[in-house]
């Protein structure tokens, strides 16, 4: 049976079960996570069902996941939702960047590296918007804000790759 990890919460659920919940509810709106009741905005299959595409049951579930993602994956999410998705997306991105069998598009990989390098340069440099020397610990807020913006940007880039890969256009 195929499993799917979805972005609302990084848990593995049976792909068929979540599709049944969606079909028996309103097909015009997103499903809600059974644990936290947040809307599921993007379904991301794990690697196991992607290898078993030749099985007709798995292929049907993956086709349903692509349909769901086409309908609901491109919607903008709130900053709170993006921050909740951040650990899942960054862990998956790191795992994908370390795996030699998986590849990210060169443009996306370059944008990720540029964002991380520029953020690191700003955080390390002594020139700040709010200087630490004058305001002490409050001066670290701009560094934390830059790091958060960098992580959110990198996660948004990777989310767009996942959306394109699993049902986007």
How would you describe what is shown here?
With 169 residues, this protein is mainly α. The protein has helices spanning 15-24, 47-51, 56-72, 79-98, 106-124, 132-135, 141-165, and strands at residues 3-6, 9-14, 43-45. Helix 4 (79-98) crosses helix 7 (141-165) and helix 5 (106-124) runs antiparallel to helix 7 (141-165).
Topology:
Blueprint: E1 3-6, E2 9-14, H1 15-24, E3 43-45, H2 47-51, H3 56-72, H4 79-98, H5 106-124, H6 132-135, H7 141-165
Antiparallel strand pairs: 1-2, 1-3
Helix pairs in contact: 4-7, 5-7
What distinguishing features does this structure have?
disordered N terminus; 7 helices; elongated
N-to-C SSE series?
EEHEHHHHHH
Number of strands: 3
| Number of H- or I-type helical stretches | 7
Helix content: 55-70%
What is the end-to-end distance? 26 Å
Instruction: Characterize the main sheet.
Output: 3 strands, antiparallel
Shape: elongated
Strand line-up across the major sheet: 2-1-3
Gyration radius from CA atoms, angstroms? 19 Å
User: In terms of structural class, how would the helical and strand content be classed?
Assistant: mainly alpha
Mean pLDDT level = 77
Low-pLDDT parts are: 1-13
Strand content: 5-15%
Short description:
This protein has 169 residues and is mainly alpha-helical. Helices cover 59% and strands 8% of the residues.
């Amino acid at each position: 049976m195929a499993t799917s990890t979805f972005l609302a919460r990084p848990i593995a659920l049976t792909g068929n079960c979540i599709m049944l919940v969606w079909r028996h509810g309103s097909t015009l709106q997103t499903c809600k996570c059974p644990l936290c009741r947040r809307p599921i905005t993007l379904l991301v299959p794990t690697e196991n069902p992607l290898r078993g595409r030749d099985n007709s049951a798995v292929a049907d579930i993956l086709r349903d996941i692509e349909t769901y993602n086409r309908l609901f994956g491109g919607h903008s999410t709130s900053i709170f939702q993006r921050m909740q998705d951040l650990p899942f997306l960054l862990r998956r991105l790191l795992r994908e960047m370390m795996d030699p069998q998986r590849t990210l598009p060169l443009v996306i990989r370059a944008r990720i590296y540029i964002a991380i390098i520029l953020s690191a340069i700003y955080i390390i440099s002594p020139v700040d918007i709010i200087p630490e020397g004058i305001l002490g610990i409050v001066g670290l807020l701009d560094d934390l804000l830059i790091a958060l913006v960098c992580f959110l940007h990198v996660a948004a880039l990777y989310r767009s790759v996942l959306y394109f890969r699993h049902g986007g256009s």
